[in-house]
Amino acid sequence: MPTNYALRTPIYAQATSTLATTQSAKLLLYNSGSLIYTIIKSATQNVPVIFEVAELLRDYLTISFPEDPTTPYSTQSITFTSTITFYDGPNGTGLSEGAVTTIGGDGWEAYGLFVEGTNPVIPFENRVKPTWLLAEANPTTASVTDDFNIYVPHNVEGYVPYINTTGTIEYFEYNGTDTELVQDSITCTINRIDCTKYGEGNKVTYINKYGVLQDLWFFLKNVKAITRTNETYQANTLSATATYSQSDATSKLFNTKAKQSRTLSSGYYPEYTNAYFEELLLSEYVWITRPQVDQPNIDEIVPVTVKTSNMTYKTSVNDRLIEYTIEFEDAFDYINNVR
């Protein structure tokens, strides 16, 4: 049964020696059985030694998203172990003392909140496995009574992340006509949204709080923009005969760059889906599925950054209708400069 740790939140490996001869402690950190770090600290009797390992492990976690919209989603994690051994000499020398303390499991691009304490484990505080890895509409301590919903257009397929009782995380697929997914008697309701004058909408996919891919649809308008930057210099166009061409500019441009951005409106969502937009804002991996420039009937998937940096939580009492407008910027230059 894997323990699923959140690598965006500190993970502490710690141990205490009860022997008076203890002088140092050595941490060995493994990724899929391969040693990646060795860290040594001074240690004394009955004083805990603590190593923070999440930041080290996250360097080895590779996050990607399929370029082909028809490719199934895949779980992306690393399997790690760490051991702490005490020694009776300084800097990990001398004889080892006592038992080796081990912490390990699967590491994900997930994060716990401050109120959830240290070493949070997916699906985090007050969540019970099995469960859908989405924010609940009506959170309870009994997962079988939780209420999970997603909102997608008609005739659209997709995937929903899930964790079972053994801690295995996977995705379950729904087709274009499904209205619910049921696993272990837990239902995720698929709410189908009618197309509007803006088309079926725009799909944004991001790594959510639980370290898995989640789709979020923006159903209303899509405003596209481009921003250009460049530099200039003054060129000398005077010829050897003291003449110049009037069609040859003296103010020359160079290092021209451009980026596209899109401002998307979500359409109307229930109040509890504030959590979806919060997790989108806090995600460091976001993609948009959009029509190709030269072939609008074919979709492409591109990485973006969420340019909007703040969000006021909307409520039905204050705002009546819950709708968000978020600006996304391409996470690459419009003019290809990959070298």
Let me know the largest β-sheet: 7 strands, antiparallel
Anisotropy-based shape: flat
Strand/helix succession: EEEEEHEEEEEEEEEEEEHEEHE
What is the SS-derived class? mainly beta
- For the record, the CATH architecture of the domain at 1-122 stands as Sandwich
- Strand proportion: 35-45%
Tally of extended strands? 20
Q: Which CATH class of the domain at 1-122?
A: Mainly Beta
Q: What separation lies between the terminal Cα atoms?
A: 44 Å
Record the strand order, biggest sheet: 15-14-18-19-20-17-16
- Using only CA atoms, what is the Rg? 26 Å
How much is the average pLDDT?
A: 91
Q: Could you give the topology of this structure?
A:
Layout: E1 4-6, E2 12-15, E3 24-31, E4 34-42, E5 49-52, H1 54-58, E6 78-87, E7 96-108, E8 131-132, E9 148-153, E10 158-163, E11 169-174, E12 180-183, E13 186-193, E14 202-207, E15 213-218, E16 222-234, E17 251-265, H2 274-282, E18 286-291, E19 299-306, H3 316-319, E20 325-330
Parallel strand pairs: 1-7, 9-13
Antiparallel strand pairs: 2-5, 3-4, 3-6, 6-7, 8-10, 10-11, 12-13, 14-15, 14-18, 16-17, 17-20, 18-19, 19-20
Question: How would you describe the overall organization of this protein?
Answer:
It contains 3 helices and 20 strands. By secondary structure, the protein is mainly beta. The relative contact order is 0.13.
